[in-house]
Amino acid sequence: MRRQTFVHGVIAAAAGLGLAGTALAQSPLEVPFYYPVAVGGPITKVIDGYAADFNKAHPQYRLTPIYAGTYQETIVKALTANKAGKAPATSVLLSTDMFTLMDEGAIAPIDDFVKTDADKAWLKGFYPAFMANSQTGGKTWGVPFQRSTVVMYYNKEAFKEAGLNPDQAPQNWKELKEAAHKLTKKDASGKVVQYGIQIPSTGFGYWMLQTLTTPNDVLLANESGTRVMLNHPKVVEALNFWVGLVKDGVHPAGVVEWGTTPRDFMEKKAAIIVTTTGNLTNIRANAKFDFGVGQIAGNVRKGSPTGGGNFYIFKNAPRQQQQAAFEFAKWVTQPERAAQWSMDSGYVAVSPAAYETPALKKYGQEFPQALVARDQLPVSVAEYSTHENQRVTKVLNDAIQAALNGTKTAAQAMEEAQKESERILRRYK
Amino acid sequence: MSSPALETDKGVMSAPLPSRTARRLAQAAARKQAVHAWLLLMPALVLLLGFTHWPALSTLIDSLHATGRGGQSGEWVGLENYALMVDDPVFWQAVRNNLWFAAATIPLSMGLALLMALWVNEKLAGRALLRMAYFTPTVLPMIAVANIWLFFYTPQYGLLEQLRGALGLDAHNWLGDPSTALACITLVAVWKEAGFFMIFYLAALQTLNPSLKEAAVIEGASRWYFLRRVQWPLLMPTTLFILVNAVINAFRLVDYVFILTRGGPDNASTLLLYHLYEVGFKFWDTGYAAAITVVLVVVLAAVALFQFFVLDKKVHYQ
Fold this sequence. Notes:
The complex is a heterodimer of chains A (about 425) and B (about 325).
Chain A: H1 2-26, E1 29-35, H2 43-57, E2 61-67, H3 71-83, E3 90-94, H4 98-103, E4 107-108, H5 117-124, H6 128-131, E5 135-136, E6 139-140, E7 143-155, H7 156-161, H8 173-183, E8 185-186, E9 192-198, H9 205-213, H10 233-247, H11 261-266, E10 270-276, H12 280-286, E11 291-294, E12 306-314, H13 319-332, H14 335-345, H15 352-355, H16 358-366, H17 372-376, H18 389-405, H19 410-424
Parallel strand pairs in A: 1-2, 1-3, 9-10
Antiparallel strand pairs in A: 3-12, 4-12, 5-6, 7-10, 7-11, 7-12, 8-9
Chain B: H1 2-11, H2 17-62, H3 80-87, H4 89-121, H5 127-139, H6 142-153, H7 159-167, H8 181-207, H9 210-219, H10 223-252, H11 255-260, H12 272-282, H13 286-314
């Protein structure tokens, strides 16, 4: 009797498993998608919403967004999973990691999936400035998604107090330096209570340096990511301009934390800050004063580097998953959705068509600060990116910090960084 | 194994049959016992081999290979990764920083731990609360703690700067200045470790025979004399244990570096393990990372062995 029950149980369980098996075969294809969060706000909720909408529109797929931490943590997780043979179908990673991902053999070119004329038109629809970090050697490796440029945020009230025009950000280095001097406030004992300008130097020091080298009309790396030009006199001059602001006492001394810079601005400890457009929504929500957003001050020319993350498709994921990832990247970068994403996050919408949508047009009229980054795109250059990207970037970051702290002169720091970078890149010549 | 058995078999050829069977039975029983012993050891052995010895060995092998790119395994390069290490200025800076860090955290955290333990061992009001307060840093997650300290050190409006402002001193960027960044990190480590070590000292103090104290009081020994001549020698085994842990922790705990400085400015607060993380998981140079790991393991093992075999002899156990 008991044995019979057992046997029945086994049969029932087996049948159940069999049913579950067939059910699985018919259920939608699971598509894992890693993404980082690098700016404030309820980004995870927004991404989950996009995935749900995508899955509704494409019942054959089930895209699963997996929040993976910062950009750095996300690439560690994605590459580790890739090495373990369980690559995600797609991940949003820094556009500058393109060469690293290529060298690891981790990603598939997007061109493999672009087949119809509609696909081709879609790929051509992005801003060229964003494609600079997504293409190399005639192939496209990434799809622009959460992209940004660097802008200046300035406190209009402080500008008024200092007798500056609050409707216009400083246009060039000379104006910027004058404004920084006027905006620096000291208390009775001579202690600075408000710095004129603040450019953060942890983590993204190389990117901030690019906001000075680009106006000085010099590039830090070549297009194929094999050569750097750090000891160029114009680069040294740009770094010296930054160091000069510190020496004049109008910029905080030492290394300035990237993460607390928006907070310093909101606390009125810095009247002008230089940081990503990705902080716009955060600052808009939390600043208790009227603020302006301006393009990066020019010198020889105007300009800023782009930044942010692209979609990459992993080569080792099953072919069907890759196709699904491609469909998602295409779906989420359609003008209406790109416009919505820009408003939700503060990132720059990735195509001119997105700015033609009624929603974003209206938003731009109500909040013109949101359009500054877009207007800056025609003069923007690619973010510093090479092979062995993280290592080469660290060398430059260290050199910038040494110069800002005064342990090395700008020329000496850049000369040493150049040598070290050449040594790291020697096998890519 | 089998040949000596055969020889004995030959030697006892003439022996009566029953004793031979008995021996065979005994042998079988012994073998069975050995199998049992190995089976019982198996779980621990598998874990030890799988998670300690095999990784250590494969790390050593990896350190002699170049980093493989694109899923290919790297070619044999012998000691090149080690030569690279000798030429790597950041590595040496990390070594120097780590030695300073260890030299400061170990005696400071141990000294503080002893002081706190002696104090909360006394009968005083609110003793439980005080003990808990000292132990709190140990219970708190390190990342959360580091974020609190980040606020303390923040320039201009951080707690430390507000204190300085109240005293009318000049502003200072604590974490952004290479001359103070490492000291700031050391302070957090001492604060974190002291409470943990205090628990061990406290436990040891509680096991001391109270009659010793009474005898000392009767003999008229001062508190300092009692501490120096009675408590301190009796605490030596605990001190050794804590020392071993403190040394390991000085090279092992780096989580707060990620939050506070990320090794900056210009590597002024880079510790060895942090450098190792960067090489391994930021630069993906696994071959070189393996070489640094091997050096770290060898050095730590040497220190631990020295502590166990040399210092241990000088310690008085009850």
